Amino acid sequence: MYVSQLSKKAQLIIKTRILTDLLNDGIPFPEANDLVHDAMDSKLYDIDEHFNNQEIKNLLLI
């Protein structure tokens, strides 16, 4: 499943989580922000690889 298949609210939650993870890994904000947008725009970000089953089910309810 890809981010583009989710509601806008769920997409925002995922973007926030990715950005937080990147910042926690020490990547500077401008670069991290670009990486998040690239992942969303290219539709390459596979939710199944980064979220567990319950988290995905919760996102589908949003």
Tell me what the structure shows.
- This protein has 62 residues and is mainly alpha-helical.
- The chain is built from four helices and no strands.
* Alpha plus pi helix count: 4
First and last CA, distance = 15 Å
> What structural class do you assign from the helix and strand content?
mainly alpha
Give the beta-strand count: 0
What percentage of amino acids are in beta strands? Answer: under 5%
Which ranges are low-confidence, i.e. pLDDT below 50, for 5 or more consecutive residues? none
- What coarse outline follows from CA principal-axis ratios? globular
From the alpha-carbon coordinates, what is the Rg to the nearest angstrom? 11 Å
Tell me the helix content. Answer: over 70%
Order of helices and strands: HHHH
How would you characterize the largest beta sheet?
Answer: none
Mean pLDDT: 85
